[in-house]
Amino acid sequence: MAEYLNSGLPLGWLINPQQEQVEIYRTVEIVQFPVSLSGENVLPGFRLDLPL
Asked: Each residue of 25-46: pLDDT tens digit?
């Protein structure tokens, strides 16, 4: 993911369904058991709902 960020990627998600965890890359943020993800200002209005 660091390579993508270094290439100019503004937002990345690394989804781990086994641990019900998502790593959000702008600066690294790890969220436990997220219900949904927002596209923030990179993808305005985008929302990804995650199954529980």
From this structure: 887 678 888 999 999 888 999 9
Q: What is the pLDDT of residue 28?
A: 65
CA 27 to chain centre: 11
How far, in Å, are 6, 7, 17 from residue 49 at the CA level? 28, 27, 13
Mean pLDDT of 8-22: 90
CA distance 40 to 45: 8
From CA 50, how far away is CA 35, in angstroms rounded? 5
Tokens matching residue 40:
């923030």
- Check: CB of residue 37 under 8 Å from CB of residue 21: no
CA distances from 48 to 2, 7, 8 (A): 22, 24, 22
